[in-house]
TrEMBL record, chain A:
Transmembrane segments: none annotated. The keyword Transcription regulation does not apply. This is 2Fe-2S iron-sulfur cluster binding domain-containing protein. It comes from Actinophytocola gossypii. It holds the Pfam family Fer2. Keywords: Iron, Metal-binding, Oxidoreductase. InterPro entries: 2Fe-2S-bd, 2Fe-2S-bd_dom_sf, 2Fe-2S_ferredoxin-like_sf, 2Fe-2S_ferredoxin-type, 2Fe2S_fd_BS, Aldehyde_Oxdr_Iron-Sulfur, Beta-grasp_dom_sf. PROSITE patterns: 2FE2S_FER_1, 2FE2S_FER_2.
Automatic annotation (TrEMBL), chain B:
The keyword Oxidoreductase applies. It holds the Pfam family MoCoBD_2. InterPro entries: Ald_Oxase/Xan_DH_a/b, Ald_Oxase/Xan_DH_a/b_sf, Ald_Oxase/xanthine_DH-like, AldOxase/xan_DH_MoCoBD1, AldOxase/xan_DH_MoCoBD2, AldOxase/xan_DH_Mopterin-bd_sf. Residues 18-122 form the Aldehyde oxidase/xanthine dehydrogenase a/b hammerhead domain. The keyword Oxidoreductase applies. This is Xanthine dehydrogenase family protein molybdopterin-binding subunit. The lineage of its organism: Bacteria, Bacillati, Actinomycetota, Actinomycetes, Pseudonocardiales. Transmembrane segments: none annotated. It comes from the Bacteria. Keywords: Molybdenum, Oxidoreductase. SMART domains: Ald_Xan_dh_C.
Length: 165, 687
């Protein structure tokens, strides 16, 4: 069954027809040609498809597009409007926090979402008693939903730390 | 020379951090159709019947292909690639059909509606012993299957100390984060493939004859590869299937991405290995014999013989030596290349055995290795072009505070954690492929280098310009490279860590030819090419390294953590320290992943890899990695190639798992000889 929905993608309003089974990830990639979010597993296991939906990071492969009619979606491409890179993106380049780049848009979006969560004081498994702080253990814990098979982890952590200062 | 050795940011950085780099599935085409494979659900037998009517009549389905109706391929010699050509099933998950539809959702639904019935046959999918094995003619990359010097049995019988142990490594899947994907488009008799591949030209040479095409009729494009680690080094069945599917819907481009689950039966993997090690030594630890007998698996439809014993041939001096390999053909998917074929699994058994010998003798494991350092390659008798294993071991020892290390196992505690350190050596050969050509052209005041090379995260976009800049003696900003397209001159596969040696040599030759012809002040449009020359035959050429690990094992639960990894490498000149470091630590982290997590669990009853996704096939995640550092020795090697560089994409994974096992022993006193090192293997023996 098809449905028509509206999304605001990287600041641009879009209308599209989707199968009710279409994930937000496939809606972006296959219907709208927005290929910044990547598909690594389609099962919520790798994080490559991470986008911001109404400001929060979500796995777009585990999100049905019809359920997000009217949502505001931001991809890694949208974090750099007019080519002006986001501080997280600049830090990723400075720290060589990627190799093949396939996990990278998801890592970048996840880092942006994560820094915001940290700002709001949301705890993680690595948080002790008081307020969570921007330290390496918090970053590694909160970024562990984003797999990097090239294993740039040791560069991702300092990149996120620097961008978050 | 200034560009080589400079720390430069990746040229493809911006497109990668924004996600605008286009991978194969994202190729800009009009009105793509979508393909979804159908896979066999038995491990061996024959298809009795395939019913496709329900699938064919589903709204939006364009075609359903099976062995009954698929076109006959021109060349079916490679049984892995000859998809839908026969009703025989040789392993579970083999391709038995494909659906092409207007959308990916419909293609997938229709694939589920294809009903296949089988005549099942008995199968054997378990590597347990050498039962049924044979001796392959040669190993991957052409290495000899067996080698022997002296008399190992006699040396074992007369030695003061011997070690005789069996070690095993598991089945592993490469799992690049980008699945194996293709966008295929036929235009009459011409074919364009956007394919996620480690080599556009090798892929073309494989696919063209299968479809009876001259190579000129096939174009392969691949500017970016979302990781490969060997699994995209050779074409797998998904490429033939996508090409077949596209031919069935003329004029429509077809996109096919294997699902993560499908990759576990269709995209290659590393064979499990059984390694019987024998060491004979005198009281000082000087080896009189070293031997490895390897048993590993291959598929019945296509032979792949991992060269697991090869590092044992070159690592340590000993008069009596022997290396053997036996292959067990099973009803399993086709094994293939995975990061550092041979050396990666083949440095697990030997490097743990060396630690066991050090333990037996009460000698420091670094000192033991130094005592067995050969003066020439023990296998061929040739001098090494450069060999700095000892320098790596000593530099690492320095950084890791090795001098103060207590040899005794199981005596250090930090709170509830037992603490230990371990070391292992690392090595990888210098490979040079026989053919590759680069062209250099003056274009709008810049130098443009074209070569069909690949960048799978390895940094080619950034490092080839560095090589060209020095060869032309111009600033690196004056050089542009174009890679990843068969329109450019022929380049060899990005495999065996041969890329920079091979393509870089071609670029240097092209630069020489260009300057010879046009001097320092060329005109727009001036152009020259150059090709890689033959490799030096007079030297044994290998990179070496030393891996240091600190392991923590929880005294009550056996939980394993590796808070510190250090690698020191001797790999010739480093072209770009920033991207090189990423390659080293990436390899080391994958080695950590192999040591602690990775294990494809193949159920012998069904021939199915039961943990066939990323939730259950565990790879290291961010929180598994704390402190991982790589550094290198300043090494000058005039024999390897014009740049003096050795390949660095694979050595990082070599030896890591052994170093982890050795550190776990040092922490707990438990020797884990079977990977992965999981807590159940240490728990029973904890204090
Ligand atoms: S593609 Fe969504 S988590 Fe992997
Ligand atoms: S950069 Fe390749 S998977 Fe992360």
């Amino acid at each position: 069954m098809d449905s028509e929905i509206g999304l605001r993608v990287d600041g641009t309003p879009r209308r599209l027809t989707v199968d009710t089974r279409t994930t937000l990830l496939d809606a972006l990639r296959e219907r709208l040609g927005v290929t910044s979010p990547k598909k690594g597993c389609d099962h919520g296991q790798c994080g490559a498809c991470t986008v911001l939906v109404d400001g929060r990071r979500v796995l777009s492969c585990l999100t049905l597009a019809v359920a997000r009619d009217g949502a505001e979606v931001v991809t890694a491409e949208g974090l750099a409007p007019d080519g002006e890179l986001h501080p997280v993106q600049r830090a990723f380049i400075d720290r060589d926090a990627f190799q093949c780049g396939y996990c990278t848009p998801g890592q970048v979006v996840s880092a942006v979402g994560m820094l915001d969560e940290l700002d709001r004081g949301w705890p993680s498994a690595a948080t002790g008693t008081g307020e969570p702080e921007l330290d390496d253990a918090e970053i590694a814990e909160r970024m562990s939903g984003n797999l990097c098979r090239c294993a740039a982890y040791a560069n991702i952590v300092p990149a996120v730390r620097e961008a978050g200062r | 020379m200034t560009a080589i050795g400079t720390d430069l940011a990746r040229r493809d950085g911006t497109v990668k951090v924004t996600g605008t780099a286009t991978y194969a599935y994202e190729a800009p085409v009009e009105r793509p159709a979508y393909a979804h494979p159908v896979q066999a659900t038995i491990a061996r037998g024959r298809i009795r019947d395939i019913e496709i009517e329900d699938a064919e009549t589903l709204d939006g389905v364009l075609t359903v292909l099976t062995p009954d109706n698929a076109e006959r391929l021109a060349d079916t010699d490679d049984k892995e690639l000859a998809v839908l050509q026969s009703d025989e099933v040789a392993f579970r998950g083999q391709l038995v059909g494909v659906v092409v539809a207007e959308t990916s959702e419909v293609a997938r639904e229709a694939a589920g509606l294809v009903r296949v019935t089988y005549d099942e046959a008995e199968h054997d999918a378990e590597l347990a012993t050498e039962r049924g094995s044979y001796v392959p003619e040669q190993l991957n990359a052409g290495y000899p299957t067996e080698s022997a010097q002296g008399d190992v049995d006699a040396a074992m019988a007369s030695a003061e100390t011997t070690i005789e142990r069996t070690y095993t490594t598991a089945m592993y899947h490469n799992n690049p984060l980008e699945p194996h994907t293709t966008t295929a488009l036929w235009d009459g008799d011409s074919l364009t493939l956007w394919d996620s591949t480690q080599g556009v030209h090798p892929l073309r040479s494989t696919i063209a004859p299968i479809f009876g095409l001259d190579e000129e009729r096939v174009r392969v494009i691949c500017p970016y590869v979302g990781g490969g680690f060997g699994s995209k080094g050779t074409a797998h069945a998904n490429v033939t299937l996508a090409t077949l599917a596209a031919r069935a819907v003329p004029g429509r481009p077809v996109r096919l991405a294997l699902t993560r689950q499908q990759m576990f039966s269709l995209a290659g993997y590393r064979t499990p290995t059984i390694q019987r090690m024998r060491l004979a030594a005198d009281a000082d630890g000087r080896l009189s014999a070293i031997a490895i007998d390897v048993v590993e698996q291959t598929s019945r439809i296509k032979e792949y013989a991992e060269q697991t014993g090869t590092p044992t041939r070159i690592m340590y001096a000993a008069e009596n030596r022997s290396v053997t390999h036996r292959l067990v053909p099973l009803d399993v998917p086709v094994p293939s290349w995975m990061r550092a074929p041979g050396d990666c699994p083949g440095m697990f058994g030997p490097e743990v055995a060396m630690d066991e010998l050090a333990e037996r003798l009460g000698v420091d494991p670094i000192e033991l290795r130094i005592r067995n350092e050969p003066s020439v390659d023990p296998d061929t008798g040739k001098p090494f072009s450069s060999r700095n294993l000892v320098a790596c071991l000593l530099a690492g020892a320095d950084r890791f505070d090795w001098a103060d290390r207590d040899l005794r196992p199981g005596v250090r505690r930090s709170g509830d954690w037992l603490v230990g350190t371990g070391v292992a050596a690392s090595t990888y050969p210098v490979h040079r492929m026989p053919a590759s050509t680069a062209v250099i052209r003056r274009e709008a005041g810049r130098y443009v280098v074209e070569i069909g090379a690949a960048d799978l995260g390895t940094g080619t976009w950034t490092t080839l310009p560095q090589i060209a800049a020095d060869a032309l003696d111009v600033p690196v900003s004056d050089v542009e490279v174009r890679i990843g397209d068969t329109r450019y001159p022929m380049a060899s596969v990005a495999g065996g860590s041969s890329g920079m040696t091979t393509w870089g040599s071609a670029v240097v030759e092209a630069a020489r030819a260009f300057r010879d012809k046009f001097g320092q002040d060329p005109a727009d449009g001036d152009e020259a090419d150059g090709s890689v020359g033959p490799a030096d035959e007079d030297h044994a050429m290998h990179a070496f390294g030393a891996q240091f690990v600190e392991a923590h094992v929880h005294a009550d639960t056996g939980e394993l953590r590796v808070p510190r990894l250090l690698g020191v490498f001797a790999a010739g000149r480093i072209i770009n320290p920033r991207t090189a470091r990423s390659q080293f630590i990436g390899g080391m982290t994958m080695g950590l992943s192999m040591a602690l997590h990775e294990h494809s669990v193949l159920d012998p009853r069904t021939g199915h890899v039961v943990n066939h996704d990323l939730a259950e096939y565990h790879v290291s995640v961010n929180a598994d990695v704390t402190d991982v550092e790589a550094t290198w020795i300043d090494e000058h090697d005039p024999y390897v190639n014009a740049m003096g560089s050795k390949g660095i994409g694979e050595i990082g994974i070599v030896g890591t798992a052994a170093a982890v096992s050795n550190a776990v022993w040092h922490a707990t006193g438990v020797r884990v000889r079977d990977l992965p090192i999981t807590l159940d293997k240490v728990l029973a023996a904890l204090p």
